[in-house]
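Support case: S-adenosylmethionine complex. Customer-provided input:
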Amino acid sequence: MSDQYQKLAQFYDSFVSKNRNYDEIATELSEIIGDYRDLLDIGIGTGLVVEHLLQIEPSYNITGIDTSESLLEEAQKRLGQKVDLYCQSVSELNIGKKFDVAYSRGGAWTFVSDESETMLASHILSSVDIQKSFDCVAKHLKEGGVLIISSSNAYGDNLVELDNGIIHKRIASTELIENERYAILDYLFYQNEELLAQQTLKLKLLSHETYTTMLEKAGFIEKDIKPGKYNIYSKN
Ligand SMILES: C[S@@+](CC[C@H](N)C(=O)[O-])C[C@H]1O[C@@H](n2cnc3c(N)ncnc32)[C@H](O)[C@@H]1O
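Agent response - structure generated as follows:
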């Protein structure tokens, strides 16, 4: 399985913790989750969201999936037996369980906005596979289950200093290829001006009309939008 995060894994926790407050993220997410207990984390990464969710509510039953073996290794170390982890893409998801809530916190897909519109940014690049990913989530949700997709501001240029004097630079651009839009994110890590690691991520950008049609096709209806935070859908 392609692991777009392999070269980032060793730096992941330190650079995301500089940019995000996982305590606040988990608190907001748990307020949306309410009394539901069976949760699917789509793109669990190193497990930071889950760690904070379990601090708020230890009785959550959480399953995490991810395509990155290197990040899943970190999640396993962090969470041990507290979660079930699977190295699977959401577009091929098949784990014989049904959940109350599935969420993607900057995982397989996330919402990004520019001055004029909000788009869905997807790690899955083919439209056929994006549709399959929504269909697979719908199949793994109980009747009336909920899908939560976060919004992200991590798609612009950025420069932060990490521990040990490591400098992390993110350079963002967009590309138009055969009428399809993509976000290109270049992640660079320097120490004493020496390049330690570099990884380029490519995400497909879908317009509001396109992603709404796809979600509806999979049986999701829009339930609530918390602008700049989360879009919440329920399974029909
Ligand atoms: C920006 S990271 C976010 C990780 C975590 N949710 C967090 O908030 O720290 C995006 C994650 O989505 C995962 N991912 C990308 N494509 C995926 C797919 N098709 N299925 C499942 N996970 C995927 C990546 O491997 C990565 O771990």
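Residues 32 and 148 are 9 Å apart (CA to CA).

Case will auto-close in a few days if no follow-up is received.
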